[in-house]
Write a structure and sequence with these properties.
Blueprint: H1 16-19, H2 22-26, E1 39-45, H3 47-56, H4 59-62, H5 72-81, E2 86-93, E3 101-110, H6 111-114, H7 125-136, E4 146-153, E5 163-170
Helix pairs in contact: 3-5
Length: about 170
């Protein structure tokens, strides 16, 4: 199929995710029980993947928001600025759909990086989101749909003491 025969999708001509190496970058982080090159979920992405996506994604895709979550570009730049403190997750939609894209629907943040008195059982999602949003200076976003307490390795230490409290935030 020639370039002139390719259908224009949401953020580019059909097939751009594979051509730009998006699939190759993120498929090693696959979290789907059934993954294809046309749809898969990924998790645990860090600074290397963030930099790759910032360089490879079309500008319009960088301003994608998953259900009123933070702007994709803000999540990626935050991950770069805070290596080991922030990881992200999401999914890739491939060329068989008109809405071919990369979306990030959640991220995990080391709670102690955001506040000195990290609460193990936050009273509500809005409380945690307000702390996270202000700390990382996210410009637009509604509160996440889900929040969980998760263990996160501390990149500066090793062994049992290296596990820190993390907050997993997710937009459905």
């Amino acid at each position: 199929m020639s370039d002139t025969d390719r259908k224009e999708g949401l953020y580019g001509p059909s097939g751009w995710t594979a051509e730009k190496g998006i699939n190759a970058c993120l498929i090693p982080l696959n979290t789907s029980s059934y993954a294809t090159s046309d749809f898969f979920s990924f998790g645990g992405a860090g600074p290397a993947q963030a930099q790759f996506l910032l360089d490879a994604l079309p500008q319009k895709n960088l301003y994608d928001r998953q259900n009123d979550g933070p702007i994709l570009k803000e999540i990626l730049t935050t991950c770069l600025k805070y290596p080991g403190i922030v990881t992200f997750e999401g999914y890739v939609v491939g060329k068989l759909r008109w809405d071919e894209r990369v979306s990030v629907d959640g991220f995990t943040v080391q709670a102690s990086a955001v506040c000195q008195t990290a609460v193990e059982k936050p009273s509500n999602i809005d409380e945690v989101w307000t702390l996270v949003r202000r700390f990382f200076d996210f410009t637009t976003s509604e509160s996440p749909d889900d929040l969980a307490i998760v263990p996160m390795p501390d990149p500066l230490t090793h062994g049992e003491e290296s596990i820190r409290l993390g907050w997993w935030l997710w937009w459905d």
